[in-house]
Amino acid sequence: MYIEHKTDQNDRGKAWIGDVEFSKSGKTIYFNGLALKKMTGTAYAYSEFSNYYDLENREAYWISGIKKNGQDRHWAGGGKIMIDRKIVNDYLKMVDFDILDENNFKLVDILPTDKQKFAELENQNLS
Fold first, then answer.
1. Cβ count near 122 (within 10 Å)
2. CA dihedral (115, 59, 22, 69) positive or negative
3. CB 82 within 8 A of CB 20
4. Report field, pTM of the whole predicted structure over 0.90
5. Residue ranges per domain, the chain?
6. Is 19 buried (19+), middle (13-18) or exposed (0-12) by CB count in 10 A?
7. How far is CA 84 from the centre of its chain?
8. % of the chain residues with pLDDT over 70
9. Using CA atoms, how far apart are residues 10 and 75, in angstroms rounded to an integer?
10. 68-89: per-residue pLDDT in tens?
11. When comparing pLDDT for 86 and 48, which is higher?
């Protein structure tokens, strides 16, 4: 998946390509230590350029599948995309490239996410 930080970034926010985990409901994506919740209803009005928000700090993210042409960044944006080194070969096959362009990508290690932490956050008593 392609994940881009949108809050106050003018399409130049940090961006990653990597494997994600979905919650049982499919409404939350776990990635790189984050829990990103699907925007629905009034939450969607939070940002017209994002479709998920961080459960901890409410910052907006855009999450989508990988584009076959390798042009995942918004046309008005820029910056290197961090790609999980564990999935580079799979990514190159998906986009039918021979090599990863070092001008556009940076190899990183994506962190696991503690899903229990976010389950507790969402289920805490508000009294």
1. 12
2. negative
3. no
4. no
5. 2-122
6. exposed
7. 12
8. 90
9. 11
10. 988 898 888 889 999 999 999 9
11. 86
